[in-house]
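Section 3.1: Structural characterization of target chains.
Under the original work plan, the team committed to producing a structural model for every single-chain target entering the pipeline before any wet-lab resources were allocated. The record below documents one such target. The sequence was received from the expression subgroup and is listed exactly as submitted; it comprises 494 residues.
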Amino acid sequence: MYNLHSHTRHRPDLGRRHKKRAFTGMALLLLLALAQLMVILDISAVNVALPDLGKDLGIAGGDLGWTITSYSLVFGSLLLLGGRAADLLGRRRVFLTGLGIFTVASLGSALASGEALFFAARAAQGLGAALLSPAALSIITTTFQGPERAKALGVWGAVGGAGAAIGVLLGGALTELVDWRAIFLINLPVGIGVAIAARKAIPADAARPQWRGLDLRGAVVATASLGALVYALSQAADAGWMSAQTLGLGLAGLGGLVVFAALELHTRKPLLNVRRLGERGVGGGFAMMLAASAVLFGSFLLTSIYLQEVLGTGALETGLAFLPMAVIIGLGAHLGSHLVGHAGLRIAMAAAFVLVAGGMVLLSGVSGDGGYVSDVLPGMLVAGLGLGIALVSVALSVLTGAADDEAGMLSGLNTTGHEIGGSLGVAVLVTIATGSLATAGRAASTAALANGLGNAYTVAAFIAFAAGIIALIVLPSASSFLPKLQVAPRVALH
């Protein structure tokens, strides 16, 4: 058997090159994770700053939701296009373009003097994120193979979950100690630093951009359909689930996606190879991402509402309350990459969702006269561990076996599931949580809200439990998946 360590003793130059490759790979991974962290932070950090932000910019209460919607609408609807653009136009080019747009738009958000300019800047941030995020994930997918890919995607999963909790903490700290504009201003030095480092760390794209291969027809249909769906979900709590707006746009979005799928089946270079959704790992992983993100984003918002509206905690204190969850999600992502590598997807994903369901059941006991340590922390820790495992398992499910020329496409699909699932979870769970407030008197509103939040957590537990059952049925078996995961990593000597 060939022994790398024995060989490197006789070839010191090979040993040094091996260590250099490992260091370069780690530096690249941390760089891409930092870029993704900026995207995640700007989703969750803004939630804590909404009261101060709305007051400064004169945004009416009913329009405050557009602070989130203007970002998520553009981000979620353009991810498939951003992912495929990374494959055809060059991953490095698309990553740097998205990073540049996101950084400049962050400055625009910080300097905005009114709601129209602020919403436009937030939409531009969404555009930058839609290019940056799938491009970064596709760079990871094509750079790391075999066991190294599992570890790299574990880091990516940790950023996706823990980053949301860190965002709440950062948003609370900056809003209370500095100003809400600091949430966006902090992206400038980080974005510029990442751009400078990325130009050195990410290899230049060897091929010329393939503009003719970009499926613009599919892009228009997919973007419009996903945009309609995201908007319908984000506004459902206010407009009503049975309103003409929600039903009309929701059905139009779903119908558009059916048309998109039909078009892609007859396109030479499709935006999304729809046939891949028929594979257990890709299609099943996408379904699991919808469920995991629905519970992740939904429970984050529910917990934030409980802490601020029921327990009366401030922005900074609320942010600090999420710190344990950030740590435990990171631990879960680390454990998840090892669990998938030994037990396969089915066991790992089912175990993850059982933990998530258990955490949601614990959180369902929140009460009007409860406390953080007794009502929130136990469920937060149990659910956070499960969510960390689930997020890395999903990424491994969708991206394992991805060829170089479809890494961006599948990365875009993975992140689309993250955004659509999150929008769905927030819309459904917030509607349940606030459903009884209209009939409650002012004195009873706190107790009614706590009761509604408990009901919403119960529904989240049901979603997680159902996802765990489906995972055992739909995902590929360990015997078929593990050989793909454990392929020896490709190593390019430089």
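The chain has a mean pLDDT of 84.
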